[in-house]
Amino acid sequence: MSLSAAEIWTRLLDRARLEIPEQTFRTWLKETKALEVKGHTLTVGTPDRFSADWNESKHAALLSGLAPVALGHPMTVMFKVHEEQKQRPQMDLFVAPPPTPAAPAEGKGKGTGSTTGNSGTGTGGVGSSSQLSARYTFDNFVIGKSNDLAAATAQAVAAAPGKAYNPFFIYGDTGLGKTHLMQAVAHEIIRATPRTRLMYIGTEQFTNELVGSIQGRTQAEFRRRFRELDLLLVDDVHFLRGKESTQEEFFNTFNALYESGRQIILTSDRPPKEIPGLEARLVSRFEWGMVADVELPDFEHRIAILQNKARLDHLERTIPLDVIRFIAEHVRSSVRELEGSVIRLLAFASLRRKEVSVDLAREALRDKLRGDGEPDSEALSVSTIQQAVAKAWGVSSEALRSKGRTKALTVPRQVAMHLIRELLGVQLVEIGNAFGGRDHSTVIHSLEKTETAMQADPEFAARVGKLRVALEGLRS
Ligand code: ADP
Ligand code: MG
User: Fold this and answer.
1) 262 and which of 193, 257, 376, 377 could share a cystine (Cβ 3.0–4.6 Å)?
2) What is the pLDDT of residues 28-84, one digit of tens each?
3) What is the DSSP string of 98-123?
4) How far is the C-alpha of 329 from the C-alpha of 318, rounded, in Å?
């Protein structure tokens, strides 16, 4: 008699429950559903990519290992996203951009920045868009004041490669869209002329491949590969600094391509002149064409970028406009950070199974908001302590700071002073200032009062102690 997929899954889960902590079980396995069994493979559906990946990496092996015990025969368990189980918000709708291949290469032979995982010598991807991130197109690029020159130049280059601006040099801080823009040009050129031979390569990787070719005595092949290109994209050329032999080779490659009218696009974190240790002849080559920068987007631009992302990922209804505004207001450092905030927020919502809201965003992005110079209502501070005490005693924190002397106010006021002193070690004078300018003898008196009361009254002591523990949890 053969069991159905659901029966197999129930048996495996019943067995797994003995091995896996209940909390883990509830978080990751409860919402799953057996989809089908084929031979010795059971496919299990999950509500989102996040849990599919998690289960696959943390639980699949364990579950498969339990099969002989639970079923009497082997069974391999696989997880995949099950469309019908999808619940909002969905992690996998927001696809994080792939890591920039320009980042320091993880060793040689990683391909030429191919996003399809082309491995090998790097020739595999030449001439195809497989080296590019599919998302980095003009359509997905939001133009604003901070990048309009760079974007307009990019479009001109795409329309007339090798003619309008060569080389095209884009510079700016990290996470502001340089790689995106450079690849958008490539996508557009390939769309118009599919046979274009292109290479997208990070400077680190260029260096690694060059070194590899010297060691393997394949330098001629290395040169040929580069010089046959119609379009060369080199990301993050500031990494060229100080690497003399790489600069030499780069200079030669550059000249060969330039002279035969091939388009070259370069990015860097600063303008050519400011790259320390870059040979003067390269600096001047880089300045031949157009040098354009990308800057930080302003508030309206940040909103437009977030809205565009939400639209692309079909998240318009998952992320309400007030949340978009909230993120745009607080996350200012780069576009990558904006995207990172959205990913984090969605992961947070998905794990907690909550709707995306401003409150949830505040919680999810606490760390990011903290560095922003904005008062953070969540971090441990004089004012969070005042608020927490006020709340616990059912008064307002303004009242705590006021001159009011009713017992309903003096007790929590003294408690707040005590906790501020204990948890933050704030000076007595400062504590006085935080409570409407009370003098330091009043503060001493308050601290003594609270201590005496705590010794005399265990219930009161427990109440203060509980609050203290909660507040301590806010320490970062
Ligand atoms: P850089 O190369 O400058 O470090 P990237 O090009 O990798 O930055 O951009 C970081 C992320 O921000 C990418 O996911 C990119 O798609 C996105 N991005 C940057 N600028 C824009 C923009 N103007 N419109 C839409 N997305 C953008
Ligand atoms: Mg980049």
Assistant:
1) 257
2) 788 899 999 999 999 999 887 767 887 888 889 989 998 988 898 999 999 998 877
3) PPPTTS--SSS-B-SS-TT---BSSG
4) 19
Protein residues placing their CB within 5 Å of the ion ligand 2 = 100, 178-179
**Residue among 308, 336, 338 to mutate when testing ligand 1 (max atoms within 8 A of CB):** 336
Cβ-Cβ contacts under 8 Å for 25 (sequence gap 6 or more): 13, 16, 17
Q: How many Å lie between the centroid of ligand 2 and the Cα of residue 123?
A: 22
Predicted structure pTM score: 0.58
Q: Would the CB of 138 count as within 6 Å of ligand 1?
A: no
SS3 340: helix
Which tens digit of pLDDT belongs to each residue from 285-342?
A: 999 989 999 999 999 999 999 999 998 888 888 899 999 999 999 998 899 999 999 9
175 alpha carbon – ligand 1 mean position (Å): 6
Ligand 1 atom nearest residue 102's Cα: 2
Ligand 2 center from residue 327 Cα (angstroms): 22
